[in-house]
Amino acid sequence: MNGTPRSLDLMVKSVATQLMAATATTSVEVSQRVLADLVSYLGVDVSFLRYNDHKIRASRLIAEWPIRPNIPDPDPLEIVYFADADPVFAVSENAKKPVVLRPEPATDDYQRRIEESRAVPATSMAAAPLLSGNVTTGALGFIKFGDREWSTDELNALETIASLFAQVQARVLAEERLRYLAEHDDLTGLHNRRALLSHLDERLAAGRPGPVSTLFFDLDRLKAINDYLGHTAGDWFIRVLAERLRRSGDGENLIARLGGDEFVVVPRAAMDEAAATALAHQLQSALREQVSIDGEVLTRTVSIGVAQGTPGVDTTSDLLRRADQAVLTAKNSGGNKVAVFTDDMAMKNEFRNDIELHLQNVIESGALLLHYLPEVDMRTGEILAAEALVRWQHPTRGLLGPDAFIGVAESINLAGELGRWVMRSACADFAAWQSRGLGENIVMRINVSPVQLVIDGFVESVAGILEEFGLARGSVCLEITENVVVQDIETTRITLAALKAAGVQIAIDDFGTGYSAFSHLKSLPVDTLKIDRGFVRELGSDPGDLAIVRAIIALAEAFGLELVAEGVETEAAALTLLRHGCHRAQGFLLSRPIAGAALESLLSKGRLAIKFSA
Residue ranges of the EAL domain (predicted)? Predict the structure, then answer.
């Protein structure tokens, strides 16, 4: 049926109205409905809408009417590659004006393709290109079984309608691009956090198969690459690892980048803990392979946390929190490990969060207090020193020792403020006792964290506190652990020298744990070595510990250093130390840490009653 200009205008308006409402979700359905109307109006047998994919140089079938009842598999019309296409299909790659084809020898190849897919021996066709600027993005075609003439008005109308379909195509592509960007990471092309959360919400819905496994990846020491080679190299490294994750796992696993150097893999199928752990180790090995960047061959290990959720029971936040706790455990264990979430991890994390929450205002609230551990001459019971130990009266967990909160304080940059409070409070107590004629000959020992040593103005702060309370030179000793000494020996040497100049004694705490400070003793301004409790606890029964303690005693004698044994808890240990020349000690056999008032009372007596003898 050949349409009049007026009826063609009405047809175009009807098409425009319908296509205006099409979205990425409804575009195929709306297109089929429009094609059905056009087939009826134009009196043809078949219509089709095809999009060009210029990346692969192919024409892809998007919609057709009527839908073929028995579509061959594979369908010869679904994707037609231009390189292999007959001349008729090839024209649609770059056509700019409508093309009309009628039964004639020049179109035999095209006729044969149509006959194979529709079992129709002879056809005529009119196809209008979809254009976006100067790019041909597809074709809108109409086929008549047998022959049909097309008027100029009809071809003009088809051009207009094709332009309307091109607008829908552009709108759909824009929507799909926005959806892609909303759900994918810019740097790697992996899914992003939003897509991950949506996927896990769906997988954890009641009635879905489970358990749902989640593998949380955190690269170890990526910062070193950024610092050494720059962030561009770091980004390239992340892209390489993302591609390895794609290649190494099941193609249907969801892989997401949460940001930075954190990735999550969610296996597509329900997977038990053993299988999920095995997958984690497999992927860990793939990511460990070397990467070449700017002539540098780099290797980075990865820590992985494995967690599982039960559909209908656990939420997405539950599952990701568990996986995050597991990967933190892996990293805190030295990295390059796979850790599986346990209930114990949850309890530790809950405890840490509670500590962090209440620690922020602990100094202002007055909840901190000091206990003191006496240091005794085991030959006489004389009090030689006292070590200040911070305690925290937690609002719900009772009295907490430093091991429960110092690490958290360091992680939230509170260690410096906490250390200053300990130093001022200990010096204030010490000065008060001395003003009453007590403890004039003892040493106040105060622990210093690694963070304090590198804080600007630390030495000046210490000197100011000593001056504020009028404490004599050499009456206060700062204790640093052996591993701190060797982390940055040059910086440590400068800081310790400045502290000595300010009138402070220096002790190396936990000495002997690695022998790492032995070679530096000659050049460090150290006054005292404190033997690590791990070597003292079994003295009298472990010959290996005795050999180490004897070596430390000899070392202290060679360098003219005071020696203190920590953790003396048995008479056997005390007697062994005395027998080998170490008489200064602290530990539960002698005294537990006591409050300031109790220490003041002890100082008034001058000594402890010794319950053993050499």
Answer: 352-607
Secondary-structure class of domain 354-605 per CATH: alpha beta
Q: 198, 293 in Cβ contact below 8 A?
A: no
pLDDT of residue 486: 59
Quick check: 412 and 353 in contact, CB under 8 A?
no
pLDDT, mean of each 10-residue run, the chain (614 residues): 74 91 89 94 93 91 91 86 77 88 64 57 84 93 88 92 93 87 88 93 93 91 69 80 82 87 91 92 84 72 92 94 91 86 82 77 84 95 94 86 80 81 94 93 91 85 94 94 68 87 91 61 84 85 82 89 93 92 94 94 88 63
Continuous segment of H or E residues that includes residue 572: helix 571-579
Name the burial class of residue 497, with classes exposed (0-12), middle (13-18) and buried (19+) by CB atoms within 10 angstroms of its CB. middle
DSSP labels, 40-88:
HHHT-SEEEEEEEETTTTEEEEEEEESPPSS--SS-TTTEEEGGG--HH
**CB neighbour list of residue 461: distance below 8 Å, 6 or more residues apart:** 420, 423
- Residue 186 and residue 192: Cα distance in Å, rounded? 9
Residues 6+ apart with CB under 8 A from 141: 47, 48, 49, 50, 125, 126, 127, 128
Residues in the chain: 614
pTM of the model: 0.57
DSSP output for 300-366: --EEEEEEEE-TTTS-HHHHHHHHHHHHHHHHHTTSS-EEE--HHHHHHHHHHHHHHHHHTTHHHHT
Instruction: Compute the C-alpha angle 220/318/207, nearest 5°.
Output: 125
First-to-last C-alpha distance (Å) of the chain: 122
Class of 5-182 in CATH: alpha beta
Q: Look up residue 113 and give its two tokens.
A: 């393709």
Q: What is the amino acid identity at position 52?
A: N
Give the pLDDT confidence score for residue 2 in this predicted structure.
Answer: 59
Strands 368-377 and 584-585: antiparallel
- Contact between 452 and 478 under an 8 Å Cβ cutoff? The reply is no
| pLDDT tens, residue by residue, 172-185 | 888 888 888 888 98
Q: How far apart (Å, rounded) are the C-alpha atoms in residues 440 and 518?
A: 32
CB-based contacts of 484, cutoff 8 Å, min separation 6: 450, 453, 492
**How far apart are the C-alpha atoms of 369 and 534, rounded to whole Å?**
27
Query: Residue 478: enclosing H or E segment and its boundaries?
Result: strand 476-481
How far apart are the C-alpha atoms of 517 and 529, rounded to whole Å?
11
Segments in 184-272 forming alpha helices (H): 193-203, 222-229, 231-248
Topology given in CATH for the domain delimited by 193-341: Alpha-Beta Plaits (3.30.70)
